[in-house]
Amino acid sequence: MRLHKLLRLCSIALITLTLTITVFLRLHSPPTTAAQKPRILSFTALQRRGSEVRNSLFAVNATNSARRELAPNIDVSYTLVWSPKGDRLAFVSGDTDIYTVNADGSGLTKQFAGEFCKAANFKIAWFSNSQKLVFARSCDGFTSDSPGSQSLYTSDISGIQGTKLVRDWEVGGEPPKTEISSSFYLSPDGEEVAFVKDKNIYKMNADGSGMTKLTQSPGEYTSGGSELVWSGDRTKIAFFSGTYPQQQIYTINADGTNLKNLTNNPQNQVYSVKLLWSPDSSRIAYYQGKAGDLSGEKQDIYAIDINGPTAKNLTQKLGNYDALSWSPDGKLIAFATGDFNQQKLYTINADGNHLNQLATRLEPSAINELAWSSDSRQIAFTFNEIKEDKSNLYVINRDGSGLTKLTNDKDLNAGLPVWQPQ
Asked: Tag placement on the chain: N or C end, fewer CB within 10 Å?
């Protein structure tokens, strides 16, 4: 009887201990979040299929390398853009057409069928509801005397019948068409568009309404190939202004207020004209070269707080830097550095501390198209395999562990890695 009672008490104690441990683990273990879901990466790969060579579109699981072809028989040119919900992907085909496709490869739909034009270029953005696209198309004139064009469209993703031309302006030519002198620059949520018109910065809604002049004095706002760059929260636009390459970095609120010169340095020597907003829209990273050097071999990476007094040199070592990319959590900046085909991959803290080389077992080579996963845990990059005479797609953890090649022997050249939003 006593033994039975003792066993019963032991059983109760064991159950109590088990429940206690279970509750403790639930409280102290990380919750099941999107970060723990399979991380999916879309990319293109040039492949030879019989006598045909085609750039194909794939989605790959970064954990186990399992992949799916999303658009069989379609040659993919460039510009892969996931919808905010991660359920659909838009891309350009043949420099003339735009398609969308579901994440599982179903629902392939042609949204736009354009005629051939010289030096065609598309920019695409999704509306926040993932149910509508806005895209801009630029074309050069076929001769130096004939104008090119800048065109803006919206699409409800139902197909070509749901796509509408919003605006079509002629650009350049002889005599030059000067009313608009830049591309259309799309806000991150697709709601608004910025551009240079009559030598001032304007914006308008994606449907063509609400055109507003933001700057009040004519300037060279996109000289040297520079761009108008929307902040992630779309409240500000960053740009270069001045005579290239001695340009200054400015920001202006999207309502035209608070024009601000961030650099205010007559010796500012800009080599690369790309400005990169931090994810929280509080800082801007960029390249700055040594005065007098336009080769790009003597530059550093800088970051500037839009509310701070000075820019900070993060790298403090003149060199050739490329493929700058903020982590989505804003804590790290990834980049490649080195001469062409002799590049290495690094991360550095956003404050300039703790430089860390990644993928050390790979021989130095050309590194392109860095892409952070949405949870900031991994970096995808394309790497030129000199011995194999092709580029491969790799993924690596932010701490440098887990280097994995995601492409296979059939892939001749990989490119355009874009992570599916989670």
From this structure: N
Does residue 376 sit within a domain? yes
**Rounded distance between C-alpha atoms, residue 399 and residue 24, angstroms:** 29
pLDDT-derived band at 210, boundaries 50, 70, 90: very high
Number of folded domains that form the chain: 1
* Residue 333, in any domain of the structure: yes
| Residue range 66-79, pLDDT digits in tens | 999 999 999 999 89
Residue 137 to residue 152: CA distance in whole angstroms: 6
Q: Could you tell me the CATH number of the domain that includes residue 326?
A: 2.120.10.30
* Domain assignment present for 374: yes
- Give the number of other Cβ atoms within 10 Å of residue 23's Cβ: 10
Q: Rounded CA gap, 196 and 211, in Å?
A: 12
Quickly state the pLDDT bin for 296 (edges 50, 70, 90).
Answer: low
Residues 6+ apart with CB under 8 A from 204: 192, 193, 210, 211, 212
Check residue 271 and give its pLDDT: 61
Task: Please indicate, yes or no, if residue 406 is contained in any of the structural domains.
Answer: yes
